[in-house]
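Researcher: Please translate sequence to structure tokens.
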Amino acid sequence: MRSNLAINYGQDRLPRYTSYPTAPHFSAAVSEADYRTWLKSVPARRPASIYLDVPFCRSMCWYCGCHTSITSRDEPVAVYAAGLRTEAHLVTEAVGQRLPVSHIHFGSGTPTIMTPETFADLVSALRYSFFVQPDAEIVVEIDPRTLTEPMAEASGYSGVNRASLGVQSFDPVVQHATIGCRA
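Model: Translation complete:
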């Protein structure tokens, strides 16, 4: 790491992309009726993209800027995944038909924190609620420190065809320090 970068930016909260619209634009002024109106305006034949935020990790890494909850148990993650399955059904119900989907992205904390069964059930629910196109890109952000072989197999079985992982630094000193963020 170049020392002048830490001096110049180390104490500042730099902006980062988290969602669109960005978090400050969410408010109580957006009602359920507004949301349903927006959903009904989605073009029926134009493929949509789905982003599923899975805000859970086993441990917090020092560089993390995501809104995440740390858990050592699977239950909160399973309950959250059940909520995502319900939301997918409600979106389809509000739209009035199964929308075509060309991209599904699982991100935020560590989506691979889900048990393989929970992940496969969630992807199946998405395929039931939406028409996931045969050539759809299905992406999952992974934490390679905690990815298990059964989860990798469940991802492949579920159609995941791209994995994403962030590299915070190629500096060996920083990488060694990052290992300390494991649970």
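Researcher: Any highlights?
Model: The CA atoms of residues 68 and 142 lie 14 Å apart.
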